[in-house]
Design brief:
The protein is built from six helices and nine strands. By secondary structure, the chain is α/β, with parallel strands linked by helices. It has two domains: 83 residues, no CATH class; 116 residues, no CATH class. The protein starts with a strand and ends in a 5-residue tail after the last helix.
């Protein structure tokens, strides 16, 4: 269901001020991050969201899942997630690299900093640049790119990373290259590209 300014009119709505305040705080501070509204059936989740959405310029949400039509709206929900998951996924990707660098499973030693890099007003961006500090001088030792797509072409992303990394160092062949895809990173046999997936970023706690 899509709601625009003045599109929803609720006859009765009482209470839920704390929940509405939390939703407004989320909307005003970090609308690029998903918000989860959960609870038992028939407790007023949909009415709460409709009340919150009333008067906003643009809110999109779905109630079809509760009516047994989840498969019908799943593609639309995935598209909406694609629009909001970019920055949170990049942050989680960098945090994953920190953990792997710390425990040694990344295979890159002496990492002292990990962060994004961009140039040209953001037109050129690398999601993760890993820095080491031999002899008191910080140098890039690896670059990484995260993609929310289910399947990512590792060779193609590596080629793009190599071209962008030339602005960081003239010796791009000495860098390690890390590519992240949601479900898989397809690489050529013998490739030394480090592949990361969502299973690495969000491991099963069990």
């Amino acid at each position: 269901m899509a709601a625009g300014r003045g599109a929803l009119r609720l006859r009765w709505f009482v209470g839920r001020e704390a929940e509405l305040a939390a939703l407004r705080d989320w909307w005003e501070s970090r609308p690029d991050r998903p918000a989860l509204v959960w609870g038992r059936r028939r407790v007023g989740k949909t009415a709460l969201i409709e009340r919150f959405a009333d008067g906003l310029s643009r809110v999109v949400f779905h109630t079809a899942i509760e009516r047994g039509r989840g498969q019908a709206v799943l593609p639309a929900i995935e598209r909406e997630l694609d629009n909001v998951m970019g920055l949170p996924y990049e942050e989680a990707f960098r945090e994953c690299l920190w953990e792997k660098a710390f425990d040694g499973t990344l295979g890159i030693s002496d990492v002292v900093d990990i962060g994004p890099w961009w140039a040209g007003g953001g037109q050129e961006q690398i999601d993760a640049v890993l820095l080491a500090e031999p002899e008191l001088t910080r140098i890039p030792v690896a670059v990484g790119e995260s993609k929310w797509a289910r399947s990512v072409n590792g060779a193609r992303q590596r080629a793009k990373l190599t071209a962008k990394a030339a602005a960081l160092t003239p010796d791009v062949d000495r860098l390690a290259y890390i590519v992240c895809g949601r479900s898989e990173v397809v690489t050529q046999p013998g490739s030394d590209t480090i592949a990361i997936t969502a299973a690495d970023i969000f491991p099963d706690p069990s």
